[in-house]
Amino acid sequence: QGRISFYMTNYGEEGTHVGSAAALDDADLVFGQYREAGVLLYRGYPLELFMAQCYGNARDPGKGRQMPVHYGCPERHFVTISSPLATQIPQDLGCFCGFGAFWGVLVGPIVFFCPNNGCAISTPTSEQHRGDGIAARGPGYGLLSIRVDGNDVFAVYNATREARRRAVAENQPFLIEAMTYRIGHHSTSDDSSAYRSVDEVNYWDKQDHPISRLRHYLGHRGWWDEQQERDWRKSSRKMV
């Protein structure tokens, strides 16, 4: 409707949000990026405040000082989002170690959670670096590292829970690379059909979407059915 200036979508990456958030303690600080609103939603951040932030109105906790989808909530231990990617790394290190303690890059209970969604705005990861992805680079920095299926919410949960346990117990950082796919456009100002095929997007949407995979699993176990699905969709739309 054009009522907000823009929006950053996160379709297809929900498994990384919920799986990682569920594995953390509520008091754990999260330094998220603009495509991770699901972490805040999991922690109980109300939809009304999500929308207030996007509008930048009087109810926005940031009072309109940020661009849309740059949420933050001290009460839920979610640090306000900044636009440039990877700024969260020095921010969380500084928060834990104190100003100037850059030696902390190799010391401290920190989990670096890296969702690898396949592309930047328009550049696929295959054209951004050589080698075996992000997780393979961790050991060179002294990081315990693991790669996980980011569209499997249970795999993400278990990997994050173990990473957190070891980070706290051993007082050292841990790197998780969660392989996923950005089904939506980069933002509402982007047309991703200019750099990837519709068939590719449809495949991930139909065959490997984290919500669909979870729904099929629950149905197979007898914990979810079509009527529950219809009721949930109806109540969710009404809530939104």
Automatic annotation (TrEMBL):
Keywords: Oxidoreductase, Thiamine pyrophosphate, Transit peptide
EC number: 1.2.4.4
Any one biological process term the GO annotation gives: branched-chain amino acid catabolic process
Pfam families according to UniProt: E1_dh
One term of GO molecular function: branched-chain 2-oxo acid dehydrogenase activity
Catalytic activity: N(6)-[(R)-lipoyl]-L-lysyl-[protein] + 3-methyl-2-oxobutanoate + H(+) = N(6)-[(R)-S(8)-2-methylpropanoyldihydrolipoyl]-L-lysyl-[protein] + CO2
Dehydrogenase E1 component domain segment(s): 1-91, 108-240
InterPro entries: Alpha-ketoacid_DH_E1_comp, DH_E1, THDP-binding
Cofactor: thiamine diphosphate
Annotated family: Belongs to the BCKDHA family.
Subunit comment: Heterotetramer of 2 alpha/BCKDHA and 2 beta chains/BCKDHB that forms the branched-chain alpha-keto acid decarboxylase (E1) component of the BCKD complex. The branched-chain alpha-ketoacid dehydrogenase is a large complex composed of three major building blocks E1, E2 and E3. It is organized around E2, a 24-meric cubic core composed of DBT, to which are associated 6 to 12 copies of E1, and approximately 6 copies of the dehydrogenase E3, a DLD dimer. Interacts with PPM1K.
Function field: Together with BCKDHB forms the heterotetrameric E1 subunit of the mitochondrial branched-chain alpha-ketoacid dehydrogenase (BCKD) complex. The BCKD complex catalyzes the multi-step oxidative decarboxylation of alpha-ketoacids derived from the branched-chain amino-acids valine, leucine and isoleucine producing CO2 and acyl-CoA which is subsequently utilized to produce energy. The E1 subunit catalyzes the first step with the decarboxylation of the alpha-ketoacid forming an enzyme-product intermediate.
Name under which the protein is recorded: 2-oxoisovalerate dehydrogenase subunit alpha
Organism whose genome encodes this protein: Molothrus ater
Species lineage: Eukaryota, Metazoa, Chordata, Craniata, Vertebrata
